[in-house]
Every structure is written in C-alpha cells, then in structure tokens.
Description:
The protein is of the alpha+beta class. The chain contains 12 helices and 23 strands. It has a 4-stranded mixed β-sheet with strand order 2-15-17-16. Helix 9 packs parallel to helix 11 (about 400-410). It is globular. The two termini are about 25 Å apart. The mean pLDDT is about 95.
Amino acid sequence: xxxxxxxxxxxxxxxxxxxxxxxxxxxxxxxxxxxxxxxxxxxxxxxxxxxxxxxxxxxxxxxxxxxxxxxxxxxxxxxxxxxxxxxxxxxxxxxxxxxxxxxxxxxxxxxxxxxxxxxxxxxxxxxxxxxxxxxxxxxxxxxxxxxxxxxxxxxxxxxxxxxxxxxxxxxxxxxxxxxxxxxxxxxxxxxxxxxxxxxxxxxxxxxxxxxxxxxxxxxxxxxxxxxxxxxxxxxxxxxxxxxxxxxxxxxxxxxxxxxxxxxxxxxxxxxxxxxxxxxxxxxxxxxxxxxxxxxxxxxxxxxxxxxxxxxxxxxxxxxxxxxxxxxxxxxxxxxxxxxxxxxxxxxxxxxxxxxxxxxxxxxxxxxxxxxxxxxxxxxxxxxxxxxxxxxxxxxxxxxxxxxxxxxxxxxxxxxxxxxxxxxxxxxxxxxxxxxxxxxxxxx
Length: 443
C-alpha cells in the first residue's frame, strides 16, 4: 500500500486553551465492535464509532468476510453478522492500512474458520512483528505463511478442525490476548490466555456482552482468561465511549499551556486504560472527574483539566500496559515539568507504528530537551520548557508522534514542525479542528 503525500504541519505558542473537547470514540472498542458484530447473529447497532482510517479498514475487512457493514450517520453504523465460524473467503487481499490492532484481531477471528485470507498493510505496518500473533494462531492448527522475519504480507489458511489452546503471552499485549480469544470462539472446549500483567480488557468485556462465556481470575500463574468456544454470539447495541488515548492530547495541551482550562466529555475510565491519568495526578496535575456513569459496558466520566505546575515522577513498569499508547505525549508533558520523569517497562514502544522511544527522544532533543533512553526505559529531564524552533521532526508515519509534537509546539518557546501529519487521520481525523476550536494555533 502506498503512503499518501507527506503533509508537513506546525504549531505555535499562543493564547490559553478553553472550551469542551469532544474527542473521538475509542479506537480499541470500535475495532472490536465491528469484528464481534460480524461474528454475531443478527444486527448490531453501533453509535460513537471512531471513523478514523484504521477502523474504516476493519469495517471493509468485515465486509470482505461476508458481513454487511453500513454507515447510517456520523458515528452510527449497523453490522449484520454471519455468526461464529460463518466468515466467507474474501475475494481479494485484506488491506489493514496502518492498523496493528485491526490486522492482528482479524487474523485471530478468521484463523479457526476453513478459509484462506492474505493480509497486508502500509509501509509502517509492514515493518511490525506478526509472529507474536501467528505463532499462537498456528497452535490452533492454522497454516500460516509470512514474509521473512514474520512480517506482512501474511497468508492464513484457516483450520477445519481447530483445537483449543492454552497460551501464556510472552509480552504484555492486549492484541495477542484478543487474537487468541477471537480464534478460540470457533474452537471446541476452552481456550485459555495467561498474562503476567493484566492488559486492557475491552475484548473480555465485549465478548461477555455479546453472550460468550468468559471468566477471569488471578492465580499463581498470572491473570488467567478462559473462553468457552462455539457460543452463539447475539447482536448488540454498542455505545462506544470516547478514547482516553485520544483525550490525552487536549488534556496535555491544557496542562502545559498557561491559563488553560478545558473539559473533555465522556472519556472511558476503564481501569486497564487509566495509567496516564494516574501518572498525571502523581505529577501534580489539576484534574477533576465529574458525572461518572456507564456506557457500552465501560465506566465513563467527564474530565476538567487546568494548567498545572508539574514535577517529574518515576512511572513503574507494571503500569506500562495501562498507558502504552500515551508515553509519547507523556514525554512532552514531562519536558514541561520540573525534574526527571522516568518511564520504565516501555520496550513495547519500540515495535509500535514506529520505534516510539527513538522517535520521541530524537525529536525532543532536536527541540532542546534532554532525554536518555535504554531498550526498556526513557528518561526526560524536565526543565519546565521546550525551546522548539528546530527543523521538522521525523514522524515515521506514526500518528501519535505527529500529534505529540504538535501539542508540544503549543507550549514551546518557538514553533514546532513535523515532517508529515497525514497519519493523524488513522486515529483522530478531527484532531486539528478540535485543537483549533480550543484556541490552539496549529495546522
């Protein structure tokens, strides 16, 4: 898949931010709603769906496997499912664009159905490791071919008579866990996933909501999830809460731009996703949660954020899984704090859309911030300012790198520029107008 022309963007310091930020629907939940809707019997009605390119690519994939996927209006979609084991063989290659979540979960969903599918993606996704998914899927009996190094394109010949699997994940990854559980839907008996540290639990919550029998328990082995195979999933109405990972960007901006106060409506407060907000509170952030409620089986609340004087902290490794996507923007916040912020247990960042540790470290250093890194940690030496004014930061087709540095520019001493902001559309298509609506000078 060819990448769109580069779209350089920049941001500049300006007035305080104010207003209400309506961030997009949660990306993780949006992917899962489309996939489980396609595996259910009947019509699933989804509201609040993130209409970023990553999620739209998952919707196209579900159509290719035989489900009906239709947009009724902004964020409102219906999916007519084919049932567990009902996927049809797609006529062409499944292109998942930039989405590691999409491709890995879809591979799991089809691997225990006797059809063949080939998966590909853009230049960034084609560099990301797939063996972490294909190895456990092969245990079910699927026949899998990858490019050298376990990379895309990947061709999976699904298994006619799958066997249930008991699998201990080698790294903390909700994508691995979810792929194995989705494969286990069409396997007889019980499929078991064992994690050393719990990861985001959207799959478990949504599988239960669609009618699967699934249990979780903590044992001496770790966090154990057990799924009973061959359920009849029942179509559901799914209200997608707003994405805490996307909310992190306007939250960060309000914290570091003097005089700012904003409200972010309806953020998911799932405890497996709240590591950033726990960390910000430890740093001295002025955060007020209001109107706690539940939407789509997920805890949700509104957040009021005010500019704060922040100090560095040490983020424990065991918190990393609950905030893995937020470390890039945390490193920007850390630069505006006083003292060192040490982020531990972050090796997984090196195999995201880019090597996010390397990309953030280089970009911050270029803009006058001191950063140290190891394979599994990153330390930002906060001095309460980002000088800015450097040449374009290399984003490596990574939406979170681009957005993080555009937020940095709103509080920097001088303009901050990124070489390409086109990838922002994969997860947060309204990022620029939303930030401008709050008063940010970027674009």
